[in-house]
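Residues determine shape. Take a concrete instance:
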Amino acid sequence: MDRRTVLRSAVAGAAAFSGSLWAGAALAAPAQPGPGPYGDLLAADVNGIQLPAGFTSRVVARSGQRVPGTSYLWHWAPDGGACFPAGDGWIYVSNSEVPFVGGASAVRFAADGAVVSAYRILGGTNVNCAGGATPWGTWLSCEEVPLGRVFETWPDGSRSAEERTRMGRFTHEAAACDPDRGVVYLTEDEEDGCFYRFVPDTWGDLRTGRVQVLCAPADQVAGPVTWRDVPDRDGFPIPTRLQVGAAKHFDGGEGCWYDRGTCWFTTKGDNRVWAYDAVNQRLDLAYDDSLVPVGAAPLTGVDNITGTASGDLYVAEDGGNMEVNVITPAGVVAPIVRIIGQSSSEITGPAFSPDGSRLYFSSQRGTSGASTGANGITYEIHGPFRR
């Protein structure tokens, strides 16, 4: 049997997602294409962005150029991002996926969305890809290199960034905090990467703790899982992903998002969105392009992920047709954003403003497809998002 047939058999009759984010949804299988909650995409606007009716776009920053209204030069290769409340406005933080320079920058917005300032919050690091926000208002910036590190940063620039190497040394991608269990979930961008969680000795203090890896049968796509301690979190000479024989391996871990009992994470090698039910310690598939009718998959190049209080997930594409797709609690997947003329780029860093009315993201390589130079573009979408 081909992979599509095998997967259909594996998930047939699977229970609906048990995490409370989608509790009560009559969802017995991974999401399928259908009419989105916002309607069809319209013709591209002046920024080359296709959006549904009622939504507008603006360019916030361009790599190598001053952020409008400031003297700060925006970084190259913008990647993972998040928003944080700041007074009566908010801050958008963005990583830089550049070797040996890396780091992260921030843009501060006023209550009306006007740019107030822009500045550096981390520098001198290596290929900072994604990361995650903490409940106490810091940004975890992750290095996507072998023996990569996690850095805790302060979006307002009030403190210098601090290294958090006790969270493991591996090819880090994204992080998502679970305050209910007091752990941080971590993805690994390797073809045989693992899904981890960091268990700090004290919640809110990431300086000490232990790293655990998710364990399950290699071919399992739905069912119970367990966690085991990683013996050597420093990953040398034996990489962390190879230290526990029962560890489940995932094909290119990418984005990670936690909300109300469920941690959603993506794998780019097989275009999947996974749902880890933290309450019942169970793994399920939320989306898999192999389970969509041939030629009908709206979401490919699965990458960064974020969500809203309404229960909608927003998944950005690395390649594909340069879209952000929404996956609804009803199990429908549909595009809400499409960038035209940038097929050699990827969409990175999707994050909502605190009030949920604005979505930020970047086209990492813009129209040129090159990760260095003035190519990256950071956008804002404003509109009637479901909240």
About this structure: The first strand starts at residue 32 and ends at 33. The chain has one domain: 3-382.
